[in-house]
Write a structure and sequence with these properties.
Length: 240
């Protein structure tokens, strides 16, 4: 008995288009044709289509199936490789679900690692600070990132933070110096409590790249007076 393309597709639980595609990519041999020109498929074709569909449903690509050949054997090595890939995918999806749950529960930004989420939900954190944190997560090493996450979650409120956020670009010399002097002790205490804030050796692209990237971000996110205050604070810290 011979089947048409439509009939073999129905028997295999697939589509005529899929059967024709298997021919096009060399997975399925072309059958003989009737006198009227129509293809006539036999049992060997059906078995082959069923094998292709089964392996495809398991997750193998058509190129992987082609590499296995036509023999109807037990591709143990390929199956084990696929099983390992699926295990890694499942693990990744489980991590994603955990992060999604955290994002949904706390309504936090989606562009930050989960350990930064609680801190960035703080309404007192400025948009510029949030954006700077995003940049930091892309350039710092794991130890420094953990130090920043710990600092953000546990740091006491700086009484002059609001003044810094509201500092106008044309603030005078006295205002800048006064703000820097009142902020320096707070910043110094953060570095003392979280020594990992210093750029560590595990930064993926090195300390120079971190300084350059963070410097670019700071120049883009803060106004000239705020940047000057940061420089003055840095100078005061270096004096000690």
């Amino acid at each position: 008995m011979a089947w048409s393309t439509r009939e073999i597709a129905e028997l295999a639980g697939t589509s005529v288009r899929a059967v024709r595609h298997y021919h096009d990519v060399g997975l399925l041999e072309e059958p003989e044709r009737r006198v009227n020109g129509y293809k006539q498929y036999g049992v060997t074709h059906l078995v082959r289509v069923l094998r292709i569909k089964r392996l495809s449903d398991l997750g193998f690509s058509l190129s992987q199936i082609a590499a296995m050949g036509d023999a109807d054997n037990h591709p143990e090595e390929a199956l084990r490789t696929l099983d390992a890939e699926l295990a890694a995918t499942i693990e990744r999806l489980q991590r994603v679900r955990i992060e999604l749950g955290l994002i949904l529960r706390q309504a936090v930004p989606t562009d930050l690692p989960p350990e930064f989420a609680p801190a960035t939900a703080d309404p007192e954190l400025s948009d510029a600070d949030r954006s700077l944190i995003v940049v930091l997560t892309r350039v710092l090493g794991s130890r420094a990132l953990q130090a920043y996450a710990d600092m953000l979650q546990n740091a006491p409120t700086d009484p002059v933070t609001a003044e810094f956020d509201d500092l106008p670009a044309d603030a005078d010399e006295h205002t800048r110096q006064d703000l820097a002097e009142r902020s320096a002790p707070y910043v110094r205490s953060l570095y003392a409590e979280h020594p990992g804030l210093a750029i560590p050796s595990d930064a993926p692209h090195g300390a120079h790249f971190v300084r350059k990237t963070v410097g670019t971000a700071v120049n883009d996110l803060y106004n000239p007076a705020q940047i000057d205050v940061m420089r003055r604070i840095d100078g005061l810290l270096r004096e000690h």
